[in-house]
Amino acid sequence: MNIEELKQKMKVLPKHPRIYPPYKIHWNWDISFKCNYKCSYCEVVRRDEEFNTQIADTDKWREVWNRIFDNYWCTHVRFSGGEPTIYPNFLPFLGMLLEKHTVDITTNLSFDLNKFLDKVKPGGLSISASFHPEFTDFETFFEKLKYLHFHGFPSTLSYVGYPPHLDKIPEYKKRLEDLQMYFKIIPFIGNYKGKKYPEAYDARERRLLEGFATDSKDEHLNDMNSRWVEWRVEKEENKETRDTKIKLGKLCRMGQMYAKIHPDLTVTRCCAGYHGQQSGSLGHLLDPNFKLLDDAQPCSVDYDCPCFKGMFVGEEEDKWEPLWESLDHPIYKVEYMREYAKYLKEQGKK
Prior knowledge:
This protein is of the alpha/beta class. The chain is globular, with a radius of gyration of 20 Å. It is built from eleven helices and 13 strands. 31% of the residues lie in helices and 17% in strands. Helix 1 (3-10) packs antiparallel against helix 11.
């Protein structure tokens, strides 16, 4: 392999390259738990009072994310919360971030479409749209989603399996899949009519969710939806089976290839425990010396792993590695990092 050709393709060689799958660092950033909707089934907005949400201007963010790029090259940022697009100056920040990183936004699509298109250009950005029927009608939402999807922003729809809304899933799901778009089902967690969900789903509701999770033509979508339903709804009674979800002491690449950013900009290895604290704190995002783990480290969580995408070394990589695939950057492509990783491994052997 010609390292000079690789340098030309990569533009910049990172100081701390990631030489293991998924080769690209993933961040899940709860940028804020504030939201302009107040859905009756949502518990998230109540968490806002638990954080002192930190806000920085675009110039400061450019400094931070340029430093991350220099250290780790192109990374993938998944914004969630709350509603990310109501964060102050979010669209200019997003446009800047896309210069060197890829992004996915979990959003209710309530933003002004013209302002969005003026500030954000296609390339490296995907949309995970959450439909909330208590605050918008499906046709308005669907038309906006279609426009984004077919104008350079690959989009999916997520729908919470709130008991009163279950019967609309077949219609909505068909509308999306007729256009080869993904419809993702998120089982409801919370209280409804004095019952705690997902435990309270009755037999009919469970059959509905299980059927919706496996009836798509796209096998990847079936696998993804099935994992959501299995993880959140199906309660394992067999102790031996449950024990397989306890990963304490096993090597995991969370913290090396993934990190969770909280509204106060503390960063944890994953989301386990209260605000991720049991997984281990990595520091503060605005700290100039902030860095990720250099290697896989033992899991420190002593209960069932809360994630079906856990990056455990030597354990089901064929199942979890594909789940970390993301949209590619138009310039800084993940295949270049794979090539660089191969080169570095070859040099290490020599």
